[in-house]
Amino acid sequence: MDEIRITGGRPLRGEVAIGGAKNAVLKHQVATLLTAGRHTLSNVPGILDVALMCRVLDYIGAECSLRDDRLIVEIPDELNPEAPLDLVRQMRASILVMGPLLARCGRVRVALPGGDEIGARPITMHLDGLRQMGAEFELSHGILEGVAPGGLRGADVVFDFPSVGATENILLAAVRAEGVTTIENAAREPELVDLAMLLNHMGANITGAGTSTISITGVSELQPANHKVVPDRLEAGTYAVAGAISSGHVRISHCVPEHSRMELAKLEESGCEVVRGDDWFEVTGPERPKAVNIATLPFPGFHTDMHPQMVAYLSIADGTSVLTENVYEARFRYIGELTRMGADISTDWQHAVVRGVERLSGCPVEAPDIRAGAALALAGLRAEGTSAISEVHHIDRGYHRFVEKLEALGADIERKRSSNRDLS
Ligand code: UD1
Q1: Catalytic pick from 58, 69, 77, 116?
Q2: How much distance in Å is there from the Cα of 243 to the middle of ligand 1?
């Protein structure tokens, strides 16, 4: 079991280059299922989730090869329209194969994902939308079987919440459906806009991506495309907080500052100096941040996947901050670990009250999920003494060369195989 050890106290300095977005590339991988041929994705991050999605695609019949940041996916004429439980359990995004496989094969079998470490995460909106388009579903023994006997046809789908995954599943189904589909109250995330761009490069007819109403006119044929994945705003935001929490000065390059607008505004409110360029920004952290209040919301609101990193940062603020989590109902499980490092945080339903402390102290902690794992590492950068973060595979799911990038910025950090994990 690998472990990340960080000895805090060094202000980070230097430049870090951002890779392609996890939450975009996984959908791009799924989109290749829509048509046979050789697809090329570039700026692909070497993260665990990309490898897991390749396993999903392999199971369905594709061949994937990743060299450096270039992923080639060969899609055959015949597919096995199935995503089994072990893969869906390891990565919920596997359920996005439903839309393209229904569109392409007229049937799909996927294991129903349960809840996960950040919440119950139902998929009713995905299923309701696909039903409106002509799909029928049956659940038996935990396996969801979908068929579209008369093929998929356009529909007016209205979401009661702008779910990212549900918008993407309907989008992926609609590009090859018969007629026009409109999605009202659609998600507006930049990664979804990037997916629509890829699909349009493949020959789809999508307008309105990035607004609350997306319109898709189905086409009968698509072609493989070459596409460069949009930069990862969550990786960019995480290194921005690394600069801020360590009272350092960090330049974040190969990113889109506009995609991190709300997160950067909150860093500025807390006392950071932020300078923005076209594809870079710089963050200079204060000695000690001011407390700020944050409420997570769908884009363009404050990203829920930046919430744990900001709570780690605000835990050493001068004053009390309130973080309101509006997207997930169970995202506070990592707070116990931060508290072990000396943070003073209490939670009540969807609120975390973060009373800033002057210092954190390093100790063994366990990463419960991707972003919370990153947040614990950020806290370790500030804490006195050494923090040892276990369950590092969560961090590997979303961050490529996390330890190396922080080390290059001057952090005292190493990854090691632990012989004795019980350090308490
Ligand atoms: C995606 C991201 C995830 C991010 C989230 C919100 C990927 C691989 N994951 O997840 O990192 O945190 O967007 O920005 O891109 N919901 C329902 N019913 C549904 C669908 C969703 O109640 O049918 C709820 C979920 O339980 C959750 C909320 O809506 O509480 C947001 O979910 P959604 O936007 O769908 O997130 P994902 O696509 O799963």
Answers
A1: 116
A2: 28
- Cis before 257? omega within 30: no
Indicate the top mutation candidate among 161, 234, 332 to test ligand 1's pocket, ranked by most ligand atoms within 8 A of CB.
Answer: 161
φ, ψ of residue 170 in degrees (nearest 5): -70, -40
User: Does the CB atom of residue 95 touch ligand 1 within 6 A?
Assistant: no
Which overall architecture, per CATH, does domain 2-19+231-417 show?
A: Alpha-beta prism (3.65)
Instruction: Give the model's pLDDT for residue 115.
Output: 64
Assigned token pair, 162: 């702008």
Are 331 and 307 in contact by the 8 Å Cβ rule? The answer is yes
CA angle 291, 292, 296 (to 5 degrees): 140
Out of 22, 26, 128, 163, give the residue to mutate to test ligand 1, the one with the largest number of ligand atoms within 8 Å of its CB: 163
Residue 305: CB within 6 Å of ligand 1? Answer: yes
pLDDT of residue 117: 74
For the chain, the structural domain boundaries read: 2-19+231-417, 22-228
Angle between helices 48-60 and 22-31 (to 10 degrees): 10
CA of 126 to the centre of ligand 1 (A): 11
Residue 120 pLDDT: 75
Q: Please say if the pLDDT value at position 339 is more than 90.
A: yes
Domain 2-19+231-417 and domain 22-228 have a common topology: yes
Q: What is the CATH number of domain 22-228?
A: 3.65.10.10
Confidence of residue 423 (pLDDT cuts 50, 70, 90): very low
Note if 279 is an active site residue: no
